[in-house]
Design brief:
Elements (H helix, E strand, L loop, with lengths): L1 E8 L5 H18 L3 E7 L6 E7 L2 H24 L13 E7 L9
Antiparallel strand pairs: 1-3, 1-4, 2-3
Helix pairs in contact: 1-2
């Protein structure tokens, strides 16, 4: 099993919108696409939205992300049409960081 740690460095003006988007149905898209959703956080200064996913292995992760993108695009279009998305003129952060992790032998959760 591998874990994927993703950090959206959206910045304080956009993180509340990212949190809302995930809570408005995006989280379910991960599950539908075969990913295990484990934890979601926001930095205390709202500079980033961070989450942890579980996958059987890297190849399964790749396949799950392909499935996710198929359902995410229509979801995002609908979400943006709802008027909840951030205005284009809000400052943007520094982008997304993604890292795959493996559990150590002494970790309490394997």
């Amino acid at each position: 099993k591998v874990y994927e740690l993703r950090q959206y460095n959206d910045g304080p003006a956009r993180v509340p919108f990212t949190v809302d988007r995930f809570g408005s149905g995006e989280v379910e898209l991960f599950t539908q696409s075969g990913m295990e959703t484990l934890k979601f956080w926001r930095a205390t200064d709202d500079s980033a939205f961070i989450y942890l996913l579980g996958h059987a292995d890297r190849e399964t992760a790749k396949q799950s992300w392909a499935k996710f993108m198929e359902v995410f695009r229509p979801f995002l279009e609908k979400y943006q049409a709802s008027g909840k998305a951030p205005a284009d003129d809000l400052p943007k952060g520094s982008g997304i960081e993604a890292r795959f992790l493996k559990v150590t032998d002494y970790s309490p959760k394997k």
